[in-house]
Design goal:
By secondary structure, this protein is an alpha+beta fold. It is 52% helix and 17% strand. A hairpin with a 3-residue loop joins β16 and β17.
């Protein structure tokens, strides 16, 4: 079964990477059919078992082909009625498939384009869309299931503007969304109130429960953590709070996951345990448990981790219900097939991958690790059990965490030992609280206990996050991720089975990993780069030599750590750069850079950072100043002609301090004058190797 799941997953990845099924897909299909036919004939006429590998190979090939074809069938971009394939659209009708999420300047929500008006008729369509609704549109705020009319044309999502930045476009394409539209107040109208259905009921119930939490917990951090911890609603979380939980290694608590579903499962088992006394009542017990688990998954938005846990526990409950002994491995494989059949693109979600890796490690590796330390002391026994579970989960997930997030929490074992018991108590008390609130009753003692647990948990997380060396910033490549998994898994297999072959594989992976890191270090040492970042409303420039770099930014950006963390520091981590040296463009000298009066000489380039207002009335030199790169900053320039009279530049860079429309105007003027120009706001970060 596991090999068939791997073949199916490989077919899904092939279908995502090569969405157009060409004639090459006939090869695995015909090969699988041929091997199955040969196997049937061999068994029927010769009775020989020498060819017993044939049906297994045929099934693997067939599942690969099925995964590819099934993914193509579920890819909405390939459908003939996709809204992007409709010529000359005039209006769009979009049904909302989620609840609006508060952003700093708008409300974000996903929807499906159900109809497009072209000419004088409406055409039924398919396809998903990301909508941003202006925040001043306070009247008749739409909700799940509503249908909106608008005329603005959706635009393709932009690729990441800065090196090392999170690729949001790719992330949304894996959710089959590749376009977005901004709708200010007055540019959209309701066509109807959509029918709620099951999802609408779930969203409404979650909003009602959030209202009860807000009434008793207020709007502070305790409410933000409670809403994320209990109901999976992360809209109230602040960036500072998320960073603290990530740094402490317990960010998984803020995304409702298998831990939460497992707690619900245990609570239901305890509450309904009395029903085991009567055979007839046992059937009702299992039906109620299945109903509540999937209701909880629905309320939390069917996140991949919750769906995985709910599906796996459903198979466990079904096996117990029918009198069979459910095995963890079969439950994991069956739940994975179930989820991938429901949505093959779920395989690309980081949450899905991390959840399955963690649960596989806990089910198959943790028992062997746990037996390495035996004690009769109850407290030590429980502590080692919790620590070994956390260690196993981190062991299975940390290579992928490094690949996706380029950081690793070093004190995760302390955080999990202290915070998870508090989180478990907060989840139980929170669930009891919302249950009583729905019945019209509240207990002040319960509110006080919940607030105390949440406050203590937040303070502990902040304390751990502030400890020296709490987070290691490391960037690895996909190939190094595979090497790291080979190293770890082969090492664990050798520890368990003592087979020298596993040790050889582990050592080989270690050698390859060391070679890859050494080659990367060599590439870092010879790097010479100039990067002008895209940070809207700000100026930011990096002069990179090896791992050292001189960084220049405006004072507003220098004092805003959160903005720098989002736009700039991912690039520093990816390039493995050291702490930056702040630049003074008026007077500075290092081994590779000289700056004087706004002119910079860097590895043979003459660069000018110009922030003055230059107009046609100023003095124009007889011979323009020769520079290789002219960087315009400050959002002060009105015309391009005076610049070309003052400077003879090989390339003109309009940095991201310019507003969108002024930058576009200056860029067009410069291009009309036959000047090579790059606008960071429109073209992304300027990156050049020297």
């Amino acid at each position: 079964m596991f090999r068939l799941l791997l073949a199916f997953a490989a077919g899904i990845l092939a279908g995502i990477g090569y969405p157009e099924p060409g004639t090459w897909m006939l090869v695995p299909l015909l090969t699988g059919a041929g091997l199955l036919s040969a196997s049937a004939l061999s068994t029927r006429f010769s009775g020989s078992f020498r060819q017993r590998w044939i049906p297994g190979t045929a099934l693997v090939i067939s599942f690969f082909a099925f995964g590819h074809l099934y993914t193509n069938a579920r890819t909405e971009f390939l459908r003939a009625d996709h809204y992007t394939r409709i010529a000359a659209p005039l209006s769009y009708a979009c049904r909302l498939t989620g609840s609006p999420e508060e952003k700093s300047k708008s409300r974000r929500v996903e929807g499906r384009v159900v109809m497009v008006k072209t000419g004088d008729r409406w055409v039924e369509t398919s396809g998903r869309l990301l909508l941003y609704l202006g925040k001043d549109s306070l009247s008749a705020l739409p909700r799940y299931g509503d249908v909106l009319f608008f005329k603005r044309v959706p635009q393709p999502l932009r690729p990441p503007s800065n090196p090392g930045a999170f690729d949001y476009r790719r992330h949304m394409q894996f959710r089959q969304v590749d376009r977005s539209v901004y709708l200010p107040s007055g540019s959209w109208t309701f066509s109807m109130r959509g029918q709620e259905g099951i999802r609408g009921f779930a969203y409404g119930l979650r909003d009602r429960l959030l209202g009860h939490l807000k009434d008793h917990l207020g709007f502070g951090n305790e409410f933000a953590i409670a809403s994320a911890l209990i109901l999976g609603d992360e809209r109230s979380l602040t960036g500072e709070l998320e960073e603290a939980y990530a740094g402490a290694g317990v960010i998984h608590l803020l995304a409702v996951s298998g831990l939460h579903v497992g707690i619900v499962f245990l609570a239901l088992g305890i509450l309904l345990g009395w029903m085991d006394r009567w055979p007839a009542a046992r059937h009702l017990k299992y039906a109620v448990m299945l109903l509540f688990i999937w209701l909880y998954a629905m309320i939390t938005g069917f996140s991949p981790s919750v769906s995985r846990a709910a599906a796996m526990l459903s198979f466990v409950i079904a096996g117990t219900w029918t009198g069979r002994d459910p095995q963890a491995g079969n439950s994991i494989i069956a739940s994975a097939f179930f989820l991938l059949l429901a949505d093959p693109f779920m395989l690309t979600h980081a949450g899905f991958q991390l959840s399955y890796l963690a649960v596989i490690g806990i089910c198959f590796i943790h028992p062997h690790l746990f037996r390495q330390f035996e004690t009769r002391h109850l407290l030590l026994h429980r502590t080692w059990e919790l620590f070994s579970v956390s260690l196993t989960a981190q062991l299975m997930t940390f290579p992928l965490v490094l690949l996706y997030f380029s950081q690793f929490p070093n004190y995760f074992f302390i955080s999990n030992l202290v915070v998870i018991p508090l989180a478990t108590g907060a989840i139980y008390s929170g669930m009891l609280f919302v249950l009583l609130a729905l019945l019209g009753n509240t207990l002040k003692l319960l509110v006080t206990m919940s607030l105390g647990a949440l406050y203590l948990m937040n303070e502990i997380v902040r304390f751990i996050d502030k400890l020296p060396g709490a987070v290691s910033k490391v960037s690895i490549t996909p190939a190094e991720t595979v090497m790291l998994y080979l190293l770890l898994l082969a090492g664990v297999a050798f520890t368990i089975r003592h087979n020298p072959r596993y040790l050889l594989v582990s050592l080989s992976a270690l050698v390859m990993l060391a070679g890859s890191r050494s080659f990367g270090a060599y590439q870092d040492s010879i790097r010479r780069q100039l990067i002008i970042y895209d940070v809207p409303g700000h100026s930011a420039i990096d002069f990179i030599t090896g791992r050292q770099h001189v960084f220049h930014a405006d004072t507003a950006l220098t004092g805003d750590d959160r903005l720098a963390d989002f736009h700039i520091r991912p690039c520093w981590v990816k390039l493995n750069l050291e702490r930056p040296l702040r630049m003074n463009p008026d007077l500075m000298q290092t081994r590779h850079l000289v700056a004087r009066d706004g002119f910079i000489w860097f590895h043979g380039l003459k660069i000018r950072i110009e922030e003055r207002t230059i107009n046609s009335q100023g003095r124009v030199p007889r011979d323009p100043i020769q520079v290789d790169i002219l960087v315009l900053t400050g959002n002060r320039f009105q015309q391009a002609q005076p610049l070309t009279a003052l400077y003879d530049a090989g390339t003109v860079i309009i940095d991201s301090s310019f507003d969108f429309y002024r930058g576009r105007y200056i860029k067009r003027e410069l291009e009309a004058l036959d000047v090579t120009c790059h606008s960071v706001r429109h073209d992304g970060a300027f990156v050049t190797a020297l």
